[in-house]
Structure formats: structure tokens, C-alpha cells
Amino acid sequence: MQKLSSLMCASLLACWASTSPAVPVLDAHYDAPIFFGGSAVIGSFYRAQTFTVENTGTLTRMEVHVGSPIDGALDFQIWDTAGGLPVPIAGTALGTASLSWSAGRPQWVAGDFVGGGLAVTAGDVLALVAPGEGVTGVGQWSFDGDGYAGGQAFSETAQNTGIWEPLSINRDFGFRLFVDVQSVPEPSALVLMGLGVAGVRRYRARRRFPGT
Predict the structure, then answer these.
(1) Distance CA 133, CA 125 (A)
(2) Residue 116: helix, strand or coil by DSSP?
(3) How far apart are CA 61 and CA 2, in angstroms?
(4) What's the pLDDT at 96?
(5) CA-to-CA distance for 52 and 125, rounded, in angstroms?
(6) What does the DSSP 8-state code read for residue 125?
(7) CA–CA gap between residue 148 and residue 136 (Å, rounded)
(8) What is the Cα–Cα distance from 201 to 207, expressed in whole angstroms?
(9) Interhelix angle for 187-208 vs 2-17, to 10°?
(10) Which parts of the chain have pLDDT scores under 50?
(11) How far apart are CA 180 and CA 117, in angstroms?
(12) What's the whole-model pTM score?
């Protein structure tokens, strides 16, 4: 009987451990259309799009809408914000994702954040930043007007100054961010766990009161 009880307890633990794996969901985003309102050269100036996190979890992946007459690549970064403006913590990015693209019409290009991603909480206001490398532009980041309510597009006022100004009135860059939401127990696992608890209680009652 003791062995049976141990097996039932083990089953309960297995059911509880049977949780959904982290699932990447589309979080903050602005889908700039293919025929967009304009584009800003990236690579020569810092460009940024502030955003508001919608889901608690791990920020693992990003996409940006980029076009270029030549092949290009750039490490996009996540910065903190202060007063609605992008501000790196002690000059260090919170997260980095390497993106590369082929020459051609504007396209969505994707990259994963290094190190497994960045822990975020719903309501966090952060900035997606294309660093200025002081070189001829490596691409053009698409933007359009009045499309995203959770942030704003910014550009440096002059190269390597760190002084920001809105890109334009009611403009937002095309971007998509993906968050792996926290795991939760599978509904079937919860049902099995409930049945197991009921079984253990009945087993104990029968041992205390034979004939029940």
C-alpha cells in the first residue's frame, strides 16, 4: 500500500511538471506597410523606436522593416528609457540582436537576442536602437505616420551626440518584438493532478475507515 501511495505522489509531481513550454508571442509592434511613408538611413546616425512591453516574459526575437540598395548588417540594441528618451545604462545595451539583409525592396529581417534574451515585464518602456557606426548608411529603416501608440521614433540631432529629437511628427519605425511568455500548467495536467489528489484522499480514508 505504501508503494501505491508513493506511485500516486510521483504521478502528481509528474502532472505538475507537465507545463507548457515558453511560447514566443508577438508583443509590441508596428507593421509599416510595403509602400511606407518614408525611411531613415541607419548606420551613420543613431535611430530609435521606443515601445511599451505588452507581456511579461523574455524578449527573445525582433524584426525590423529595412530596405537597402546593397547587402547590409547591423547589431540592433535594446536600451532603457528616461523621460521618454532612449538612455543606455552606463553605456551598455540591455540586449543585442544581429540582423543582416540582402539588397532589394524593403523587407522584414529578423534576429534573436544574444544570451537567451532579456527579461521584461508588461508596461516596461524601452527603446529599440539602430546604432550609428559613423559610416555610410548600411540600410534604410522604414517609417510611417501615426501608427503606434506605445512609443515614438527618434533620431540623433547630429552624429555621435547622444542628443535625441523626434524623427517627425507622428512617425514610427516598422518593428516587431517577440516575448516568450512564462510557462503555465497544461489544463490536462491540472485535471490529472486534481484526480490524483482525490484518489490519495480516498485511499487514506479507506485505510482509516475500512468498508468506506
Answers:
(1) 25
(2) helix
(3) 49
(4) 95
(5) 5
(6) E
(7) 29
(8) 10
(9) 160
(10) 1, 3-4, 7-18, 184, 189-193, 197, 200
(11) 9
(12) 0.76
